[in-house]
């Protein structure tokens, strides 16, 4: 069956600003391939397997993909963070912040 998502929807007026923010953040962990779509098994190579950060939050590329393709809302706390920033992605994310986000994703320690 299809995955069950129990999160509040992103209001229609906020979908594009949320997507723009999510897509504007730098990739901190890249992949040369894509994964299968959990909602559409025919799309076997569709979901980005990368990770991005804005220096505070880190999220998989799948977050924007599923919102864009299937209307699946991101984590409500992430959406609240984007709202608090008025959907203005930072112009730059420091290398130290990228390193910390990458360490959080991979479970490795950093000396930053």
Write the SSE topology.
Blueprint: H1 12-24, E1 27-29, E2 34-35, E3 47-48, E4 51-53, E5 58-60, H2 62-70, H3 76-84, H4 95-106
Antiparallel strand pairs: 1-4, 2-3, 4-5
Helix pairs in contact: 1-2
Could you explain how this protein is built, in words?
- 38% of the residues lie in helices and 12% in strands.
- It has helices at residues 12-24, 62-70, 76-84, 95-106, and strands at 27-29, 34-35, 47-48, 51-53, 58-60.
- It has one domain.
- It is α+β, with helices and mostly antiparallel strands and 112 residues long.
- It is globular.
- It starts with 11 loop residues before the first helix and ends in a 6-residue tail after the last helix.
- Strand 4 (51-53) and strand 5 (58-60) form a beta hairpin.
- The relative contact order is 0.21.
In short:
With 112 residues, this protein is of the alpha+beta class. The protein has one domain. It contains four helices and five strands.
Radius of gyration from the alpha-carbon trace, in angstroms = 14 Å
Low confidence ranges: none
Number of helices: 4
Largest sheet: 3 strands, antiparallel
| Count of individual domains | 1
Keywords, please?
38% helix; two-stranded antiparallel ribbon; 3-stranded antiparallel beta sheet; alpha+beta; globular; 112 residues; 4 helices
